[in-house]
Design brief:
This protein has 4 helices and 8 strands; from the N terminus they run βαβββαβαβββα. The chain has about 170 residues and is α+β, with helices and mostly antiparallel strands. Strands 1, 2, 3, 4, 5, 6, 7 and 8 form an 8-stranded mixed beta sheet that branches. α2 runs antiparallel to α4.
């Protein structure tokens, strides 16, 4: 079980391209993704899809007690158009502590004014809506789990930071 550090002792959000990750960090990220998506959620798919190593991919994570407790990746940072957030995952013992919100806030800072997309598990659409995402199509099944495609439009320079601040103020731990 992860301990809940006081705010002044929080681990910083970390972000890196694949080439900047050490082997232990890559292993810890892949283990967390496998433990949650494949084992817990029973989604039997090829998680290693080749996108992790692309130059425009940024890996974003938080640690607690020297373990990766939450993670997401941002795709397509080096191409025009919308960035894509995916593989958002929190370790079971760290759920409800606000880590996913911290990761999303950081991800939107990295994405900046660009539009972005994600595929939300249907029960999490309200969480992503707090960050400016809206449903863009009908619910669909992915590996037996209901998902909703969501988008966040391009932001004006001041609009993006205001939306992030608003989401942080309204945040409930997820």
């Amino acid at each position: 079980m992860f301990s809940a550090p006081p705010p002044e002792e929080r681990e910083p959000v970390r972000a890196a391209s694949f080439g900047d990750l050490d082997a232990a960090t890559v292993y810890a990220i892949m283990k967390l993704r496998c433990d949650v998506f494949v084992v817990e959620q029973k989604c039997y798919y090829a998680d290693l899809d080749g996108r992790d190593t692309e130059p425009g991919t940024r890996h974003v994570w938080l640690t607690r007690d020297a373990q990766i407790a939450a993670y997401l990746r941002i795709l397509d940072l080096d191409t025009p158009g919308a960035a894509r957030i995916g593989r958002v995952v929190t370790a079971p013992a760290a759920r409800g502590s606000g880590l996913a919100g911290r990761l999303m806030t950081h991800a939107l800072t990295v994405i900046g004014e660009r539009p972005s997309r994600l595929s939300a598990q249907a029960h999490l659409t309200g969480f992503y809506a707090r960050f400016g995402y809206t449903a863009e199509g009908p619910e669909y099944l992915e590996d037996g789990i209901p998902h909703v495609p969501m988008t966040r439009p391009a932001q004006l320079p001041d609009q993006g930071s205001a939306a992030i601040s608003s989401a942080v103020e309204r945040r409930r731990p997820v």
